Amino acid sequence: MYQRQPELPVDWGSIASLYDIEHPACRGDEARFWHDRATEARTTVDGPILELASGSGRVCLALARKGHHVTGLELSSIMVDRATARSSRLSPSVRDRTTWVVGDMTDFTVGDGTFSVVFVAFNSFWLLDDAGQDECLAMMRRHLAPGGRIIIDVFPPTVQDYTDEDSISQFLGRKWHGRSVLRVKDYRYLIEPNAAISAVRYYSTDRDPRSPASMIGQFTYTLHPESPERVEARLCRAGFTVIETFGEYRGEPISPDSARAIFIATVTQPD
Fold this sequence. Notes:
Elements: H1 16-22, H2 28-42, E1 49-52, H3 58-65, E2 70-74, H4 77-88, H5 92-95, E3 98-102, E4 115-120, H6 130-143, E5 144-154, E6 165-171, E7 180-190, E8 195-205, E9 214-223, H7 228-237, E10 240-246, E11 261-267
Parallel strand pairs: 1-2, 1-4, 2-3, 4-5
Antiparallel strand pairs: 5-11, 6-7, 7-8, 8-9, 10-11
């Protein structure tokens, strides 16, 4: 029988530069979504914004450019260094609206509990197992101002997410030192711990089959995906009331074909 072992926090620092190639700046529908949600929340609570697992600052910097004061909390000090470097190249007004903190999203203390929005973007909530997700929600509640909102942005699992597959290959949209980057992933799903394990390798190549490709990075990470119904139930157990859900950054509802499962919630008011 599977026995749950405590999971170490995932540190993405070893592939920080490759992560930025794979996931470029937050723009378009995604950027508009976060700006609109932050603006809506600030009509009730005019406080700053906190992103957990903020990486190298994709979403935080998009919000800062729109005039929001944001704090990004990230486990990897290398990612935080990259976020700091990225913000240092922006205008002083944008740079002054950003704060970067190294920390674990399951156990942290940032500010004085007056954030208007606390959110986890782009599947990072799935990096936590059952206990970690509950601990993270408790931290989010502790740091939220009265009347504030939390946002959990993940994907709704499909049959494919529960199916093993080897050598899933994809060329990234941006180049590495002038050469294309090929991403190859071996995927395993373990039922009892609800663990989706991805072993990823990155190769530098010029796409010529006669030319050898060289490995430039590798990384293994585990996600713990749940259905939208289970996510909402977890939020309710943690003392939140879900007030909106979205299946896309454009605002469509969650459906079986949705790319996203986004939950916006407030602290449940006592009877």
